[in-house]
Amino acid sequence: MKKIIPLFVILAAALCSVWAVKPFPTDPVEKAKALERYKQGLAIYAKAQKLYYAKKYEEANATYEEALTLFQDGPKPDIANSLNILGNVYLNENPRTALWYYARALSIRIADHGQEHEAVASSYNKVGVACMKMEEYDRAIAYFGGALGIFKRVIKKQHSGHFGANHCHLGNAYAAKKDYKSAVSHYEQALAVFLKVFGEKHPNIARVKRDLGFALVEKGDKKEGLVLLEEAKAMYIATEGAGYVETQELIEKLKKLK
Fold first, then answer.
1. pTM score, whole prediction
2. Residue 4 within any structural domain of the chain
3. pLDDT tens-digit readout, 100-154
4. What residues contact residue 180 under an 8 Å CB cut-off, 6+ apart?
5. Domain assignment of residue 200, given as a range
6. What's 235's domain CATH number?
7. Which of 61, 104, 138, 152 is the most exposed place for a label (fewest CB within 10 A)?
8. Residue 9 lies in a domain
9. pLDDT digit string (tens) for 39-60?
10. Which of 75, 8, 90, 79 is nearest to 48 (CA)?
11. By C-alpha distance, which of 51, 57, 114 is closest to 86?
């Protein structure tokens, strides 16, 4: 029987090795050593990329980690993004493995940028998505909420697509918990943001109206929910086409609700 590792152990293991990249030394001898380490790191990183594209994911991960030990001076490739891509590979079939990669990427981004950075918020969302896949909904809500807080602190615009997307994440998590009142609240906030950012006619408007409509139906407000679902269907047809997969799925679900 496969051993189930607690979520906090995965996160702690991934977050334990944190460092900060230093500028290249000014001393000529030390600078030469640092540049040599940097060139070695680039070569190993290139090898890791090849392993990834060959679908040798575990070997790619180990090679990325080897490259990281050499990128202690100066800038480095976006290894956090590479680890996120590895996480994506495992997300549907093995979300706990995906979580490890996402948490590792998060640790790198925190070390590189500090907590208050858009890249860190994006990594919080990645961890939240893995938690959703594992049905760890309260933890997902914590990470999605943390990401939303960072986005709101670092993005100076009054309205941003990031805000709307995170309200959608939170709506999805609350809906999964069957807390439809909270889900409706977040979907409504997402819709308000997306209308400001994208205007009336956009696929994201269709998606959030769809999700809000279903949440309202589940909450007991079927009449209001059906109105929004019909609006979502019309928007899908206008923006994505009648044959689009999400349009067809919505049409079929609407038939069952009526």
1. 0.81
2. no
3. 999 999 998 998 899 999 999 999 999 999 999 999 999 999 999 999 999 999 9
4. 174, 215, 216, 218, 219
5. 157-258
6. 1.25.40.10
7. 138
8. no
9. 888 899 899 899 988 999 889 8
10. 79
11. 57
